[in-house]
Each structure stands twice: as structure tokens, then as C-alpha cells.
Design a protein that fits this description.
The structure is a single chain. This protein has one helix and no strands. The protein is about 75% helix and about 0% strand. With about 70 residues, the chain is mostly helical. It starts with 10 loop residues before the first helix and ends in a 9-residue tail after the last helix.
Amino acid sequence: MIGYYKICTTREEKIEAAKYWEKVRQEVSLIRDQSDRDSETQYNQKVILKVKKYYEEIKKYNIKHRPNFMEPI
């Protein structure tokens, strides 16, 4: 052993190390996906709120400045 690491010398040790790191990669991938999903949800909610606010402002403006020849809303 060198420090905290063991150098793989046999085929079985190399396979075991490869399986371990693959498991770690999968766990990290799940954590990253969950984090991305949460941040995307927050971003999308902000965008939706901005669009709703903008739509309401446009709607109010259109009602106030509607030409006389158009039907009332």
C-alpha cells in the first residue's frame, strides 16, 4: 500500500476497482441529475411567472387602448 491507495496487481483487483468506480460514477450521475432537475424547475417557474406578468400587462394595455371599431372584450 502506498498512502491510502492500493495498487491493483491482479486481474480480480482491477475488475473490483473498475466496478467500484463505475458504481461511484452512477451515484454521482444520479445526484447531478437531481440537482439539474431542481435548478431547471426553479428556472422554469421563474420564466413562467415572468411570462404571466408580461401577458397580464399586455392584456391591460390592449383593453385600455383598444380601437373603437373593434368589439368590446
